[in-house]
C-alpha cells in the first residue's frame, strides 16, 4: 500500500521536534477528545474509500492504524500514540497530513486542529482537499492526475502523475509554485518540447494574473509576482502585456526520459470554494501515447529536475 503523498521532510522534522514536547504544551490539547476523534474517523473509513483492497480475512472495523498512518505519511508508532492519548502535541503540518489522510471534511479538519490545541487554518484557499475530490483521486490509480492550487502548487499526485511529471511534492518555499520554477529554473522546461514553451509561458503568466486579481494586495500571489518581476525578464515582459485568459496549451506534450514524447489531453475540474483544480491527463485510446502511459509504472519516474 502506497499513499499518493508522503509527509515532507519539514513535516517529519516538525514531528521529530514534537517528540520532545513538554507536558506544558499538552495543556492546550484535549488528549481524550483528540484520540477519540481520530479513532472514530479511522473506523468510519472503509478500505474501498481510500483505494485499498478489503481482503477476505479482514475483521477490523474501518481502517487499521497502520493504514491510517501510511495514508497520512507518518509512522504507525507516531499515529498510534495519538490514538492512545500519549505522545507529542502534533504540529499544524502533521495535523494537515492526518486530515488529508483520513479524508476529513472542512468542519472535521477544523475540529481536529482545535482539539489538538491549534487555531483552524483559513478555509478559503487552503491546501486541504475535500473528501469528494479525494474520492475521485482514489479511483484514478491507473491515470495521471494531480490537484493544484491557484498558485500552481501541487497538493496531490497519483502514482502515474509522479511517473509522468516527477515528484512535485518535493519542492519547498516559493519553489512549490510551478509558475516560479518555470520562469527561474531552466530544468523545469525540459519536460516540454522547446517549440511549446512560449505558449506555456504565456498561459502561466495569464493564470498568475488571474490569481493575483482574485487574491488582491497583500496576498501570496502578489508576493510571487513581485519575486518573479525581480528575477525574470521574460516574466516581466509577459506581465506587462496584461493578458488575461490566455488559451491552455492543448494537447500537452511531455518529454519522458525513457519513453520519449507523450501527448495527452488535460481534463480540468475546478473546486471554486477551495481555489483548487484537478487535472486529469488522458491519451487518445489506442494511440502510441496511450500505450506509453500504460508503460509508466514499469518505466518509473522521469529524471527529476533539480530543485530551485
TrEMBL record:
<dbReference type="Pfam" id="PF13560">
    <property type="entry name" value="HTH_31"/>
</dbReference>
<feature type="region of interest" description="Disordered">
    <location>
        <begin position="45"/>
        <end position="64"/>
    </location>
</feature>
<feature type="region of interest" description="Disordered">
    <location>
        <begin position="1"/>
        <end position="28"/>
    </location>
</feature>
<dbReference type="GO" id="GO:0003677">
    <property type="term" value="F:DNA binding"/>
</dbReference>
<dbReference type="InterPro" id="IPR001387">
    <property type="entry name" value="Cro/C1-type_HTH"/>
</dbReference>
<dbReference type="InterPro" id="IPR041413">
    <property type="entry name" value="MLTR_LBD"/>
</dbReference>
<dbReference type="InterPro" id="IPR010982">
    <property type="entry name" value="Lambda_DNA-bd_dom_sf"/>
</dbReference>
<dbReference type="Pfam" id="PF17765">
    <property type="entry name" value="MLTR_LBD"/>
</dbReference>
<protein>
    <submittedName>
        <fullName>Helix-turn-helix domain-containing protein</fullName>
    </submittedName>
</protein>
<feature type="domain" description="HTH cro/C1-type">
    <location>
        <begin position="61"/>
        <end position="109"/>
    </location>
</feature>
